[in-house]
Amino acid sequence: MEQNGDSCSRFIDTAQFDSLFLRKYHVAYSIALQITQDVPDAQDIVQVAFCRLWASRRTIRGRVDIWLAAVVRNAALDIVRTRSRGEITYSHKDDEGACHAASAEDEALLDMESLWIAAALESLCVTDRKLLQESFFERLSHSAIANRSKLPLGTVKSRIRSSLKKLRHLMQAA
């Protein structure tokens, strides 16, 4: 593994894992705590995330920090959704009960990211954009999309794959 721990090249021994844990724990905990606003939940989420990391250590490709952040974020959001029955809030109350909204910087970054994604999606042809929408937002299987759009299954898979490649390229360029 690289010294900074950003890349996972199948770390095997516990010393490498311990080193990674020490470097990445606070970042993972911060993500979980920011989303859940609950210390015990954040601690549980981080523990589960690192257990998953250890269990998946031979199959993870790419950057461990991105993988770990995604696992922590998704687990935290699951807890928030469960607690609020689908209503996620990004504000929290302090001991006096005052409510604090997300920072302006965070909101601006989310807005910029949304604009980049929207612009990248607009660059796709209508058919490909519709296929991606059905696949990712409506969570339809490729077979269901093929049946709905009256396209061969192979064509649906190829168009979705090539659209994702194009989006990835556009997002990296932005």
Going across the major beta sheet, what is the strand order? 1-2
Strand content: under 5%
Number of helices: 7
Cα Rg: 20 Å
Strand tally: 2
How far is it from the N-terminal to the C-terminal residue, by CA? 29 Å
Question: Globular, elongated, flat, extended or rod-shaped: what is the shape?
Answer: elongated
Low-confidence stretches: 1-9, 86-102
Give the biggest beta sheet. Answer: 2 strands, antiparallel
Walk me through this protein's architecture.
The protein has 174 residues and is mainly α. The chain has 7 helices and 2 strands. The chain has helices spanning 14-36, 39-55, 64-84, 104-122, 126-137, 142-149, 153-173; strands at 92-93, 99-100. A two-stranded antiparallel ribbon has the order 1-2. A hairpin with a 5-residue loop joins strand 1 (92-93) and strand 2 (99-100). The longest helix has 23 residues, at 14-36. It is elongated and about 50 Å long.
Short description:
The protein is an all-alpha fold. The protein has helices spanning 14-36, 39-55, 64-84, 104-122, 126-137, 142-149, 153-173, and strands spanning 92-93, 99-100. The chain has a two-stranded antiparallel ribbon.
Provide the fold topology.
Blueprint: H1 14-36, H2 39-55, H3 64-84, E1 92-93, E2 99-100, H4 104-122, H5 126-137, H6 142-149, H7 153-173
List keywords for this structure.
single chain, 174 residues, mainly alpha, disordered N terminus
